[in-house]
Amino acid sequence: MKSENFNNTIFKILALYIITSGVFLTIFFITFYQKEANYIRLNQITHSYTHYNYILQNIIEARHDRTYLNQEDFSYISKRLNTQFAIIANNQVIFSNLTFDVLKILTQLKKNDFIYNENKRLFIDFSRIRNLNTYIDTSNLKKPKHHSHFLRHKNIHIIIETDDLGFKKEQYRKDNYNNLDINDFSHELWKLKLKTIFYTLICILLLAVVAYILILLVFKNIKEQFKALNDFIKDTTHEINTPLSVILASIKKFDDTNLNPNNIKKLNHIKLASKNLNHIYQNLIALNFFLQKENTKEDINLKELLEQRLEYFETLIAQKNLIIEKNLLEQNFYANKEEMQILIDNLLSNAIKYTNAHKKIYIYLKEKTLSIKDEGQGMSTKEIAQIFTRYKRFNQNQGGFGIGLNLVKQIADKNNINIKVLSKENEGSEFILSWQG
After folding, report:
1. Mean pLDDT of 199-212
2. Contact call for residues 44 and 192 (beta carbons, < 8 A)
3. Mapping DSSP to helix (H, G, I), strand (E, B) and coil, where does residue 167 land?
4. At 431, phi and psi to the nearest 5?
5. Least reliable range by pLDDT among 220-224, 246-250, 415-419
6. Which of 64, 161, 178, 295 has its CA 20 to 30 A from that of 390?
7. 377-402 average pLDDT score
8. Which 3 state secondary structure label does DSSP give 392?
9. In angstroms, rounded to a whole number, what is the distance separating the alpha carbons of residues 437 and 427?
10. Span 91-108, mean pLDDT?
């Protein structure tokens, strides 16, 4: 396994871990945020209710003292409480510093159980809310006696205005979380958002660091073993080169004129085995060394190259008595010749390997198109989707390492060649290569 592939594996595992952990953390912090936001909204309602009671207390005390509160008195109360409110008696506006038309707001309040929100503002008439205890905890709050009876008898409405922090009636239920020191509730909600986001990011970052360290520790020995395996493959491939070259050269120069038929048969077996071995060797070389660099390109006569490679595989073709049906037009392609040879060799080798004896292989070279078709065992749709995956083998009886078609794909992509695969089980497969320019 290459270092790049190994690092990609670590990255994928790390990414999966972070994403799944991030999802769970996000769910946790969203739940945390919603709960805390509800507490802040509850405090806001409770805070507004204490202001309402203070205003009501001043009205009742003034009535008890037989005095009347005027605009200046209510303005003073508003500034002292730092809140906006309105007083309406018998549909007459006594005082208002609301941001909207107070009578229109009163109309909307009557339609909405006396809790109404508009344009990010919340309006409440506490004296007329049904089941007030379901919205706030009034057990520890002082309120004027008989206030509801008094306000209803005099047809007085006290409307409190505050920020709308995402009001929903079902969010407010009796709770003992009352902090009346908070005044700017919209600011508190914004701080809660920032705090939630900050803690979420910190947790994800810590999880990523811990996960990365754990993965490195777990994969350290595996990485070393893969490196040793890669080095072994490279060294072994290099060492095979000399004896294999000697074997191939010797077979080529071997004089078989005086051999009896039995020995000629044995020599043919040696030729087949050496060519199979050479094909595997060339693939290993390409996989580990050749394709990793930019190789010299030239104008290649594809017809001539195909003829050469068919001649190379002639012994394998003859062994299975295969019939080669070909139609090769003159076609040139600008690429590295050794890479194109590896591509063609692997397609021809597969066609020969998977075609039964006495069957046909069809090779057509037309304008900007090369087609190699066999009458072999074919592939299923699932297998077609995975044929270019390295080390993927579908027929364990045929041998090989599962790297041939992966090399074909790499070379095709490198040279902007499109590959189309057509196949039916028990009928055969066709590889169609096409290119532009």
Report:
1. 79
2. no
3. coil
4. -105, 120
5. 220-224
6. 295
7. 74
8. coil
9. 33
10. 92
Placement of tokens 């490679």 in the chain: 309
Neighbours of 389 (CB within 10 A): 12
User: Could you give the CA distance from residue 281 to residue 275 in angstroms, rounded to a whole number?
Assistant: 10
**Pairing assessment for the beta strands 360-366 and 323-328 based on DSSP bridges:** parallel
The tally of CA atoms less than 13 A away on the side-chain side of residue 210 is 9
If pLDDT is split at 50, 70 and 90, which confidence band does 212 have? confident
Q: Dump pLDDT digits (tens) for 233-244.
A: 677 766 776 677
User: Reduced to 3 DSSP states, what percent helix, strand and coil does the chain have, rounded to the nearest 5?
Assistant: 60, 15, 25
With helix as H, strand as E and coil as C, how does 108-164 read? HHHHCCCEEEECCEEEECHHHCCCHHHCCCCCCCCCCCCHHHHHHHCCEEEEEEEEC
> What's the N-to-C CA distance of the chain in angstroms?
35
Of residues 131, 129, 132, 119, the one with CA closest to residue 158: 129
DSSP conformation letters of 259-272: --HHHHHHHHHHHH
Cβ atoms of residues 351 and 376 within 8 Å: yes
Beta strands in 152-244 (DSSP E): 156-163
Give the whole-angstrom CA distance, residue 371 versus residue 425. Answer: 19
CB atoms within 10 A of CB 336: 19
Q: Which of 283, 291, 281 is nearest to 335 (CA)?
A: 291
- Sign of the alpha-carbon dihedral angle for 60, 64, 68, 73: negative
Amino acid at 48: S
Helix pair angle (261-288, 185-253), 10° resolution: 150
Spatial CA neighbour of 25 closest among 196, 225, 259: 196
Going by their DSSP bridges, the two strands 428-434 and 369-374 should be labelled as antiparallel
What length is written for the chain? 437
The first and second tokens of residue 240, run together, are 């095979």
What is the b/e burial string over 7-40, where b = at least 16 CB atoms within 10 angstroms of the residue's CB? eeebeebbeebbeebbeebeeebeeebeebbbbb
Q: Which phi and psi angles does 315 have, rounded to 5°?
A: -65, -45
Tell me the β-bridge partners of 121.
118, 163
In angstroms, rounded to a whole number, what is the distance separating the alpha carbons of residues 392 and 386?
7
From edge to edge, which strands make up the β-sheet containing 369-374? 323-328, 360-366, 369-374, 428-434, 418-424
The structure tokens 């009346």 sit at 180
Q: Compute φ and ψ for 401, nearest 5 degrees.
A: -110, -5
What gap in Å lies between CA 403 and CA 405, rounded to an integer? 6
Tokens of 168: 């929903």
| Nearest one of 411, 436, 434, 410 to 421, comparing CA atoms | 434
